């Protein structure tokens, strides 16, 4: 039996990388997946891959850097049982080289979007007495990375939001957790950054998106029914040393 049958999952940034791998994994475990992204062509391709494997999905476009886009996505999604706050972007370089507009884009897309979506959807989960919210953090939120000050701050913010939302919503049955990947090989990641970080993991390599998606899928399901307020590193041991 597929343990997520009858559940609806919204995955933001689900047209590539970790988000797409997560959408495919959740669908394979029985969830109906709402695939969010900005590119309709890539979104429909993800939906087709899910349906070809026997799953159920639909695509919802939205620009989450715009607050109106987050509100639109929450409205079109309706009631969801699983929310994966994955959408976002990264920037690495000298702090003096990041202008205010770029700084705002990072926080608007990585933090504010997740806040607005969760504040719209979590109360409805709480009224139903169940739900799972998984925020995608990063090892950058726990370790110092030269050139990653602003990005790291957005991911540390996700850890803080997880703690606060767990305190707010878990008494009503809504579990809130963070998955914190290390270096991951995705089409959107800068190869030189990943190549530089991969040897620093104890396992000596970067992860594949599916390895992160497996942990997210576990947290979404009944096997993680007593886990909330957890930040789970999936970083090959990078934060252990």
Architecture in CATH? Answer: 3-Layer(aba) Sandwich
**In angstroms, what separates the terminal alpha carbons?**
40 Å
Radius of gyration: 17 Å
- Percent helix: 40-55%
In CATH's first tier, which class applies? Alpha Beta
SSE succession: EHEHEHEHEHEHHE
Low-confidence stretches: none
Structural class by sheet pairing and helices = alpha/beta
Q: Major sheet: size, sense and barrel closure?
A: 7 strands, parallel
CATH H level, superfamily name: NAD(P)-binding Rossmann-like Domain
List keywords for this structure.
about 240 residues, single chain, alpha/beta, Rossmann fold, globular, about 45% helix, 7 helices, seven-stranded parallel beta sheet
Description:
This protein is of the alpha/beta class and 241 residues long. It has a single domain (8-236), classed as Rossmann fold (3-Layer(aba) Sandwich), CATH 3.40.50.720. Helices cover 44% and strands 16% of the residues. The protein contains seven helices and seven strands, in the order E-H-E-H-E-H-E-H-E-H-E-H-H-E. It has helices at 17-28, 40-52, 67-77, 100-128, 149-169, 191-197, 209-220; strands at residues 8-11, 32-37, 56-61, 82-85, 131-136, 174-181, 231-234. The protein has a seven-stranded parallel beta sheet with strand order 3-2-1-4-5-6-7, sandwiched between helices. The radius of gyration is 17 Å and the shape is globular. The relative contact order is 0.15. The mean pLDDT is 95.
Compact overview of the structure:
The protein is an alpha/beta fold. The protein is 44% helix and 16% strand. The protein contains 7 helices and 7 strands, in the order E-H-E-H-E-H-E-H-E-H-E-H-H-E.
